[in-house]
Description:
Elements: E1 2-4, H1 14-46, H2 50-58, H3 69-78, H4 81-84, H5 88-119, H6 125-156, H7 161-165, H8 168-180, E2 202-204
Antiparallel strand pairs: 1-2
Helix pairs in contact: 1-5
Amino acid sequence: VFKSQGPPAAPVEMKELHEPCKSVATLQIARDLRNDSAQQISSLLAELPASVRKFMETGDKDQELDISDDDARDLSIQTNETAIDLNISDELSNIRMFRDIVEKQKSARQLLIFLLIKSRCQFGSEKAALAFTTAQRAMGELTKRKQILQDAMELEGATMDDLEDDGGDNADHAAEEGNQEELTLDWFKPVAEDEEPATKKTRVE
């Protein structure tokens, strides 16, 4: 077990992740369309008789073979008709395109992994949770302050009309509903600014 320093942690925008994800998904369609053709060619070549493969390997790839009629007849009998009817130029073009698609997908996936490590899989939930819990505490404190104010005014014989005109009933009702449906974020553990996040380094086993 050892620790390997990954890319420095930094914010990553969602649109940065969207681009490689979109690229992988779009290329997958083109890859699927050519996958069957690539597998078919692979199967046909694997099924070629040993005598045919040996004959092919003896020639120069840059020169056309001079085959006698008897050899051509024997080879055609041993070779699958589908393989004989292949358009070599078209099939090679499809294979090259298939290879390019696979390489582009690989690059997009590598970029996506890099961005995920760089972001430490933090996309703003911590910041939003901090703002939410801060506002939630402020609302709770405001409710307590209002109750203290109401109690003090009642003891002093002051009128409550001003509070009612300002929407006191509505505020009380909203506070009660907020308490009943209070959202708890058990996963959120605020980290002090001078503390180093636990995910600062990537762990590799």
